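Notebook, bench 3.
Goal today: get a predicted structure for biotin carboxylase from Virgisporangium aurantiacum so we can plan the truncation constructs. The sequence was checked against the plasmid map this morning, with no discrepancies at the termini. Length recorded as 450 residues. Pasting the sequence as submitted so the record is complete.
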Amino acid sequence: MIESLLVANRGEIARRVIRTARRLGVRTVAVYSDADADLPFVREADMAVPIGSANPAQSYRNGQLVLNAAKSTKAQAIHPGYGFLSENAEFAEAVTANGLIWVGPPASAIAAMGDKIQARNLMADAGVPVAPGTREPAPDATTAREMAEAIGYPIMLKAAAGGGGMGMAVAADASELAAEYEKVRAFAERMFGSGDVLLERYFPTVRHIEVQILGLADGSVVALGERECSVQRRNQKVVEESPSPALDDQQRRDLLAAAVRAGQAVGYRNAGTVECLFDPASGNSYFMEMNTRLQVEHPVTEAVFGLDLVEEQLRIASGLAPTFGAVPPAPRGHAIELRINAEDPRRFLPGPGAVTAWVEPEGDGVRVDSGYAAGTTVTPHYDSLMAKLIVSGATRDEAIERAKAAVAAFEIVGPKHNLPFLAEVLEFPEFVSGAYDTGLVGRMRPAKRR
């Protein structure tokens, strides 16, 4: 097992990685920006190194500063968490080039999946279902219109190098396509350094379902069930659950098998997620992208499979067999994760501030992964995620009831927060029924989203 680990991240995911490493007897090193000096993860690590200003480009996204911290503290390995440097192939390569262990997939897999067009083509060639779309980027608006006519409207335009729900737009016809193409291309160039735009068929009614995979040290790839991620605002997830209430047994088997093929196609190692669109009308799933890192929502998989995915990551990176031996355990029960963000619960605008009270719920099946506590401050420099509330039960109905109680018991004073919105979701009949899709939030409060 790795003996010392630098966690190249912050907030709740840094605390979560440190917690498992400590249980395994692994020495931990935290890195932190000036804005995060008082956060819990800094205190909980065995060592903590300041690496720069609040600007992520001058701290958490600066690979050289992270490497310098690893060398100065004699860390043996680096865990990137999610975001920041986690899907940076050049950084992953630099880590191994400096004689350190990268707790993640090979740089080649990160690079292959980092471009949506390349990833889509690789998956199609490996027999993984993909939605009707283009194999090459649309070089201009005229060509984009010709491609769209061949695919059929409505069309989804995506920044090929994008991620996190950014750089996407929908066009219902040729006139909308021309305008949206230029917007997406300009945004992609500005945000991602590449103006390449991918065109795909847009499904007005669709569910977002993803599969947790592990590429093991022996070269094999296994799937650990699926997560339903269709409760979204601004194309970003806010509630996830496992298993998905949308799938029947055959659809689930087909989806998991396709995810394993996806991992095998790129020689995947460590934890990753294959994200798919599920069309309820046809019952078909289509590859969307692969996240070459640990996901924010990984705890729902942990809850139903009884595993610690960070431990599995560390074991794989150490060249060890997984804790479960040759065959993964069978899933049990149901789990729901609710993302608690520092944002207005009506318009979802960021609402940072000083935390004057923070009381976490407790009880059977309740887990909280938090990055903050009373006396800390949520700053505007980073993602608005403050904590994740994970609730599990023997059935989906029991998990929902426990989640309602846990949301009601969670107290946060200071920054704005979305707990009232999450309470709405848990009571909304469409969510409770399980027959919902990515348009759920818009239907919950249509007048407030105009």
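The mean pLDDT is 95. The chain has 15 helices and 20 strands.
Flagging this for group meeting.
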